[in-house]
Amino acid sequence: MTNSSMNPKVDEFLNKAKKWQEEYSVLRNIVLNCELTEEFKWMHPCYTLGNKNVVLIHGFKDYCALLFHKGALLKDTHGILIQQTENVQAARQIRFTSAQEIVGMETIIKDYIHEAIEVEKAGIEVPMKEHKEYIIPEELHIKFNEMPALKTAFEGLTPGRQRAYILHFSQPKQSKTRVSRIEKYTQHILDSKGLND
Prior knowledge:
By secondary structure, the chain is α+β, with helices and mostly antiparallel strands.
């Protein structure tokens, strides 16, 4: 492993890391042994194959993680891949809380990276679900036109919350029931609350 394949921006990122520094270094060494190109994207170390993103190293308050850009396509034989939120369709994480844990899983991590490389070489894409089922009902559009503040508040909600409302408002067959549901939750939306908050 020559140092020429190490990206100076990643060195800088590691030197500045206040948390997970040791973990990042261990992860970096494992990934660099898998013949990927080290780049720095989205303010994080990112590893590519022919300009395609394969894995990214990132950290959060409670854990650091290896993010597989097409993790949804991996077999996940060890059941360790995590979908960050329900709206993430392709990417999956393996989370860690200590350098020891990463060292202990090195072989497994490498297996997953090699599988991710094979997926990329084969040119397989993650089939993205279209958001057709989340069509805003006409009654809500009307309400948005009457109350621009409601539209602004609604657009400020997380995609998951927006979806929950849209599904809830679209369910009734009758327009008047849809309208009454919208009326019932208008203040909720204005208060930036989700359907079940």
